[in-house]
Structures are given as structure tokens and as C-alpha cells.
Amino acid sequence: MRIFLSFSLMILSLSASAIVIRHDVDDKKYLAYLADFAPLATLYVDGAHGTLIKPDWVVTAAHATFCISSGSYIGLNHGYHKVESVFVHKDYQPGKSHDIALIKLVNPINDIEPANLYEQSDELAKITWFIGVGGTGDGLTGQTVDNYENGGVLRKAQNKIEHVEGPLLKFKFDRGISALPLEGVSGGGDSGGPAYLTNHNTNILVGISSRVEGGNIRKYGIMEVYSRVSFFKPWIDKVTTGEEAVQRQLALPKLEKLPAGLTEQNLPEVCSDIGLKPNAI
């Protein structure tokens, strides 16, 4: 089991999320609680996230859905919730494009307030929060603790939107006088996690964690790429309110191409290793 778990960690770490922090700020200042972002969903035992945006809908990164299908379970607020279906954006191209998918739950969740979707096109220079349970480290060393070793410890960090490019948002890991007090970026294992704002205790989802580009992985200077929620709001609205025929015109029921290292042959064992398995629902 540990062999396949390590293998899955490698797959998830090739993308993004969790929190790598400043080297000159105490890690304890980054520790977070579920109440900090209640709509945070967790897809696997070792991480990968999504965000509850309607009582029975979660948005995440397309590439993070490789083990999610009808009958799978995802975690929210210490509970497990059964998946009805998955909708992967038809234009998703691994590592080359945006990265977004929707998960429909069998039953609505009524004790968690869903996040609102950011609608404006003025994201540039806004300061957002990241949150996740994946790997950690600091800007000098990069990630030194993987998402399995992190053991579910939740952290959050701040970052400013540096670039807005069509369907994408980009963040840079700054240091020194350019850094925010709790500057940070995603580490390995929590792809699909949120970049969010809060306004009068309302959570507003701005971006969805996808990947990194340029520089040393998860060290100062790295750029993080998130899918831009405002760009995809029309697609989200159509999929979450449309009939099945409309949904299937707009999305695929699963990934067409698996993440690097996964095959149809090893996928079942990997998914068995990392999938959430409630004892009784």
C-alpha cells in the first residue's frame, strides 16, 4: 500500500496546492482551522481539494479527479459525501490550459454555507488566501514535507494576483519587503484548492489551484497558476443548472488523459490506496 501511496503523492505533487511558507515567519502563524474556509472539500486521504459552491456541487481542478467517479466519497467538514457524477471541462489540456471540473453529490449538504463565485474581472493585484493540508516547507528550501508526512495539518497563506490572462490567474512567491505578512504558495498534494476572499464572513472563490511554472519548484520566485473563476462562471452555471444533455455538451464524465505515471492498469490500485472510505454513511 505504501508503494502506491508514495506513487500517488508523486502524481499530486506535480501539480499544486497545500502551503509553503516564508522562511522568516513561524509556521504556527500559518496554521488554520476548517472554520477558516468551511466549504473546503478533500478528495483523497493524502489531499487534493475542491470547494463547495452549491449544496450538492463542488468545483475542483480537472486533473485532481483521476480517482473520482460515481460512488466515490469526498470529505467536507469531518463528514463523507457520496459522488453522483463528474464533469470535466471539454477544453482541458493537461499543463497547457485552464484546469477545472465539477463534482455532483448524491445528497445536498445543508450544514455548510457554500462559497460564492467571484464575478468581476478586476482580480489583478487583489490579495487572496490559499488553504490546504498538503506538503509544506519554506521559500528557501522549497517543500521538505510531503502531503502524507504532513498528516492533515491545515495551513493558509496570503498571495497577491500578479497576472490575469483570460482563463488564468497567476501568483508569485515573493520574499523580503515585497512579501505579504503571511506570504505563501501551494505545495504538493492539494490541487483544486481555493484562492479566496472573505467579505463580511462570506467566502468568495476567486481561483482554483492548477500548477506551477518557472523557477525552482515551490521556492521564492515560483509562479503559481490558478483557473479563473469569473471566466468560468457561465460554464459553471450552465452545468450546475442544465439538463443532462446540456451538461454532456459542455463537459466530459472523466479525464480523457490520466496524469503522468498513471495508467488504466495501475489506476484501480492507486485509487483504492488513496480513496476515502467511510465505515458507514
Explain the layout of strands and helices.
Layout: H1 2-13, E1 20-21, E2 40-44, E3 47-54, E4 57-60, E5 73-76, E6 79-89, E7 101-105, E8 116-117, E9 127-132, E10 136-138, E11 142-145, H2 147-150, E12 155-165, E13 168-172, E14 184-185, E15 194-199, E16 202-213, E17 223-228, H3 229-241, H4 244-250, E18 251-252, H5 267-274
Parallel strand pairs: 8-16
Antiparallel strand pairs: 1-14, 2-3, 2-5, 3-4, 4-7, 5-6, 6-7, 6-18, 9-12, 9-15, 10-11, 12-13, 13-17, 15-16, 16-17
Helix pairs in contact: 1-5
Characteristic terms for this protein:
16% helix, single chain, alpha+beta, 5 helices, 6-stranded antiparallel barrel, globular, 281 residues
Helix and strand succession? HEEEEEEEEEEEHEEEEEEHHEH
Distance between the termini: 24 Å
What general form does the structure show? globular
Oligomeric nature of the chains: single chain
Whole-number radius of gyration? 17 Å
Strand content: 25-35%
Count of alpha and pi helical runs: 5
Average of per-residue pLDDT values? 89
State the secondary-structure class.
Answer: alpha+beta
Detailed description of the structure:
With 281 residues, this protein is α+β, with helices and mostly antiparallel strands. The protein has five helices and 18 strands. The protein has a six-stranded antiparallel barrel. Strands 9-12-13-17-16-15 form a six-stranded antiparallel β-barrel. Strands 1-14 form a two-stranded antiparallel ribbon. Helix 1 packs across helix 5. It is globular and about 50 Å long. The two termini are 24 Å apart. The N terminus is likely disordered.
